[in-house]
Structures are given as structure tokens and as C-alpha cells.
Write a structure and sequence with these properties.
This protein is mainly alpha-helical. 63% of the residues lie in helices and 0% in strands. It has a domain at 22-76: Orthogonal Bundle (Arc Repressor Mutant, subunit A), CATH 1.10.10.60. The chain is built from eleven helices and no strands. The radius of gyration is 22 Å and the shape is flat. The two termini are 41 Å apart.
Length: 226
């Protein structure tokens, strides 16, 4: 992680305990989140992780939500931004896949990423790079923004599905398929026909590959029409 300022949050009169810093709080919270998930993050739990007073984290973060936002920025900071010297669609695919892979590495962060405004410096850099690639492809400003959110939304949705299904026991898919096959065939002929595919959706990377290639093809067509 990049070194952060040790300056306490404005308005807190009490000084920090010796040996603590904003960076130390983030590192302790990161270790806890990697071990137990983002849902385990409380200010008291972070303090316990670091062996400091329960109120010490508040010296640097006014609330749990502020600390989580800092950690989410670190998650987005793990995305490699070095792109191949290639056509814009190839660069776009590489970057979007890198974002998707980061979400799969930190699945417990996904609900927080969806509900927390991403305004941190690392999030801003990622957004700028992705929007620049979309702009390089010939998309106008409105489509750059639309494409950015469409791709991000696709990644959040797929990563949410995949993080629960890829390592799930196969019995779950078998049960889903069996349930679908009990539907009345006169009402649900197509559902029954594709029951196996529905039950196994997002259990491998093939479904994501299809969605991403379709999205890029659509954006390419959009750029060509401008």
C-alpha cells in the first residue's frame, strides 16, 4: 500500500497511541478482511487485530464506513493497469478482465463496492484508464460513461454469481436442474430445454467469456456507428 498521511481526522482532540498511524490502521483492517471477510470489519475488531485501544481507529477514521471505503480503494488498487500494445478492443478486454479477477479475489468486498461511492485515488486512476480505453475506441462522451458503468455492472454481477457457484458442490446444480424439470412443459418448454445450462450458469468462466465478448462487440459496433 502507498504511504498515507498520519494526520488524524479533524475534530478529534485525543492524540494517537504511539506506534499507530493511518497506514497501520489500514494494514490491520486489510489483514482482518483478508482472513475473515469485509463483513468482519468493525472498529473494535480492527483495534483488537492491532492490539490497540478500541477508540484509537477513530483518531484516523470517523466511522467504520470511512475505513471500509479506504480498504475498497486498496482493492481497486490491486488491478494491474499495464495494458498490451494492441488494438483498443484487446486492451479493453485485458483491463475489464483484470477488474473482474480482482473482484473474484475479494468477493466479500463486492456488496460494499456496490453501496460505497468510489472516490478514492486508486479508484479514480482505474476509472480514468478504463474510460480512456473506451474513448480510444471512438466512443463519444456519453457512451464512454455508459460503457464504463455497463462493464463494471457486468463484472459485479458475474463476480457475485461466480464467487458463490464456482466452488459450490455439484449437488446444488443437480437439485436446481431437477426442480426446473418439474415445471409444466406446456408452459415452460424452453426453460426445460435449457435446464442444464441454467443450473450450471456461472460455474465456469465460459459464461463470463460470452458476456464480455458480447459486450465488447456491442461497444465496437456503437463506436463504428458514431
Amino acid at each position: 500500500m502507498e504511504q498515507s498521511s498520519d494526520e488524524p481526522v479533524a475534530g478529534r482532540k485525543r492524540g494517537p497511541r504511539a506506534g499507530t498511524s493511518r497506514e497501520a490502521i489500514i494494514e490491520g483492517a486489510w489483514a482482518l478482511a483478508m482472513r475473515e471477510g469485509f463483513e468482519a470489519l468493525t472498529m473494535r475488531a480492527v483495534a483488537s487485530e492491532l492490539g490497540i485501544g478500541a477508540m484509537t481507529p477513530y483518531t484516523y477514521f470517523r466511522a467504520r464506513e470511512e475505513l471500509i471505503a479506504a480498504l475498497l480503494d486498496e482493492v481497486l488498487g490491486t488491478i494491474p493497469l499495464e495494458l498490451p500494445e494492441a488494438a483498443w478492443a484487446v486492451r479493453l478486454e485485458a483491463l475489464v478482465r483484470a477488474h473482474h479477477d480482482a473482484l473474484l479475489r475479494f468477493p466479500s468486498a463486492i456488496p460494499h463496492l456496490l453501496s460505497t461511492p468510489m472516490t478514492g485515488p486508486k479508484a479514480a486512476v482505474f476509472a480514468e484508464v478504463l474510460m480512456q480505453v473506451l474513448h480510444d475506441g471512438g466512443l463519444v462522451a456519453e457512451d464512454v460513461v455508459g460503457g464504463f458503468f455497463a462493464l463494471a455492472g457486468m463484472n459485479y454481477g458475474f463476480a457475485s454469481f461466480e464467487s458463490r457457484r464456482m466452488n459450490a458442490p455439484p449437488e446444488g446444480a443437480a437439485q436446481t436442474r431437477a426442480t426446473l424439470l418439474t415445471l409444466p412443459p406446456e408452459q415452460f418448454p424452453l426453460t426445460i430445454e435449457v435446464a442444464t445450462q441454467l443450473a450450471n450458469f456461472a460455474r465456469t468462466g465460459a459464461d463470463y467469456d460470452f458476456a464480455l465478448s458480447s459486450m465488447i462487440a456491442g461497444l465496437s459496433a456503437r463506436a463504428t456507428s458514431n
